[in-house]
UniProtKB/TrEMBL annotation:
<dbReference type="GO" id="GO:0006629">
    <property type="term" value="P:lipid metabolic process"/>
</dbReference>
<keyword id="KW-0378">Hydrolase</keyword>
<dbReference type="InterPro" id="IPR051218">
    <property type="entry name" value="Sec_MonoDiacylglyc_Lipase"/>
</dbReference>
<keyword id="KW-0732">Signal</keyword>
<dbReference type="InterPro" id="IPR029058">
    <property type="entry name" value="AB_hydrolase_fold"/>
</dbReference>
<dbReference type="InterPro" id="IPR002921">
    <property type="entry name" value="Fungal_lipase-type"/>
</dbReference>
<protein>
    <recommendedName>
        <fullName>Fungal lipase-type domain-containing protein</fullName>
    </recommendedName>
</protein>
<feature type="signal peptide">
    <location>
        <begin position="1"/>
        <end position="30"/>
    </location>
</feature>
<feature type="domain" description="Fungal lipase-type">
    <location>
        <begin position="112"/>
        <end position="249"/>
    </location>
</feature>
<dbReference type="Pfam" id="PF01764">
    <property type="entry name" value="Lipase_3"/>
</dbReference>
<dbReference type="GO" id="GO:0016787">
    <property type="term" value="F:hydrolase activity"/>
</dbReference>
């Protein structure tokens, strides 16, 4: 025999059971979301401060306009943490105002590819132009993925890409199957991202790492998702109130139709007051648009865009695409009818270079 309690007791009992069920359901869903977020982050690279301080010097050196000093790695920015770097090819696309180099860093046991950022008459004009940039081209082989035509074309539709791929192939021939590290600042960071993706997708390169500084957004959320799967070993370093990582604008109410950063961001910023101020390197989440990182502040500083880790990331002068070279550099350079130049070390020099043992990882 079942003894039923008073009606009010039975009603409370049913509400109690329902409350327990709702709590269990919520707890289960919460655990699942947390597990998925953690799983996504596990596919992203760990941040290495020492590597960042090395690569920012390569991103600075590629701005040098004296091509002789840059090609021979004797420029004022070609010492310090990058001393002993062997340039294989220096590429100057005068027509589109682009510059890049490929070489081998023995201490990193890697091929390093660096892209120069914007070299316009006025960086202010370039930044203002970014406010109005639209997603205007579909990325090949990625459904729904759209990117910025200008950044895509700067890498894919100029003399830069064939020169890069040729240099990587030559480097592997003479130095072995080394890791590849791609870096750049500002627009050079956007080109570095497209280069890293290109190497993985179209040349099936292994162990490709990308680290950029002050990089703008380059595509939508679909592109960011594809990119993070294909090139998970990527770090975007942003600096305090740097304006460029905020551009082109991100509109959180239209996630599929707006520009979206890919992960992982590392945000450099200062905390504290008065004499108790120190720099923090915050490793952000796997969303690419962590609201607690650079998006938590107003992106309104050009000064923060031009200096990372105390290293200047700009040209020596504000001349547009100005270059300097002497007869020594011309001996190694080939110029096409449009004035674009490729400086290459010949095979005999590369053979001599490979006699030096490559090793001794600095990281």
């Amino acid at each position: 025999m079942v003894i039923a309690g008073p009606p009010e007791y039975m009603g409370k009992r049913r509400w109690f059971i329902l409350a327990i069920f709702v709590c269990l359901l919520a707890f289960s869903c919460g655990r699942e979301l947390m597990a998925e977020h953690k799983h996504a982050d596990n596919h992203l690279t760990a941040y290495n401060h020492s590597l960042a301080t090395i690569l920012v010097e390569y991103a600075s050196a590629v701005y040098m306009s004296d091509l002789t000093q840059l090609f021979t790695w004797t420029c004022p920015r070609c010492s310090g943490l990058t001393a002993g770097f062997d340039i294989i090819e220096l590429l100057v696309d005068v027509e589109h105002c682009l510059q890049s180099f490929v070489g081998v860093a023995k201490d990193l046991n890697a091929i390093v590819i660096a892209f120069r950022g914007t070299q316009e008459h006025s960086i202010q004009n370039w930044i203002e132009d970014l406010y109005w940039k639209q997603l205007d081209i579909n990325y090949p082989g990625m459904p729904d993925a759209m990117v910025h035509h200008g950044f895509y074309s700067a890498y894919h539709n100029t003399t830069i890409r064939p020169g890069i791929l040729n240099a990587v192939e030559r480097a592997k021939k003479y130095y072995g199957d080394l890791n590849i590290i791609v870096t750049g600042h500002s627009m050079g960071g956007a080109m570095a991202a497209f280069c890293g993706l290109d190497l993985v997708v179209n040349t099936e390169a292994k162990n490709v790492q990308v680290m950029t500084f002050g990089q703008p957004r380059v595509g939508n959320a679909a592109f960011a998702s594809y990119y993070s799967q294909l090139v998970p070993n990527t770090i975007r370093v942003t600096n305090d109130h740097d304006i460029v990582p905020h551009l082109p604008p991100y509109y959180r109410y239209f996630p599929q139709k707006t520009y979206h950063h890919f992960p992982r961001e590392v945000w450099l910023h200062n905390i504290g007051v008065g004499s108790l101020v120190y720099e923090v390197e915050k490793v952000c989440d796997g969303s690419g648009e962590d609201p607690d990182c650079s998006r938590s502040v107003a992106g309104n500083s050009i000064a923060d865009h031009l200096v990372y880790f105390g290293v200047e990331l700009m040209c020596e002068t504000w001349r547009s695409c100005g270059i300097v070279m002497d007869s020594l550099a011309k001996e190694y350079g080939k110029m096409d009818v449009k004035g674009n130049i490729v400086f290459s070390r010949d095979s005999s020099i590369l053979r001599m270079k490979t006699e030096t043992n490559i090793g001794g990882d600095r990281m």
